[in-house]
Amino acid sequence: MKTTVKTISILFLCTLLGACAPKEDAAELYHQESPLQADISLPKNFSGNEPIKVELTQNEKKVADADFVHVEIWKNDGTFHDGMEEAENAGDGEYTYKKKLAEDGLYYIKVHAGNNGSTIMPTLPFAVGELSKADVEALNDQAPAESGDHSQHH
Known about the structure:
By secondary structure, the chain is an alpha+beta fold. The chain has helices at 2-18, 133-141, and strands at residues 36-41, 52-58, 61-62, 68-75, 81-86, 88-91, 94-97, 105-115, 118-120, 123-128. Strands 1, 2, 3, 6 and 7 form a five-stranded antiparallel sheet that branches. A hairpin with a 5-residue loop joins strand 4 (68-75) and strand 5. It is elongated and about 95 Å long. The relative contact order is 0.18. The model is unreliable at 147-154 (pLDDT under 50).
């Protein structure tokens, strides 16, 4: 009798565990991430008058109408900080932003962009005119020094 109970128990457990096997398409049931990507383009010798271009792609397709694209610029030494402003949709996945930067130095641009639940905030250093010794050192250290209050959130 004990052997029969053990055999039935083992068969029951095997059946129960077999029912817990994952489905082959289980991965497709979860949210699939489609990351947003931004390519920030600045002219080689940026004088502070040319537009900055941002090309957004998602799933290897251009994002023609993103949920939001904002640009924030600050100077490395803290003397200039331009809060987030909306970039202009130039069409075909390209967004432009124009800000007159009169002073030479090291600047940082941060693009705040979002589309279909994916949000990115890439930061890129760039030079306007001649860089000071402190700017060159900061660039070599690869440590962007943000200034001001960044309390705006989406």
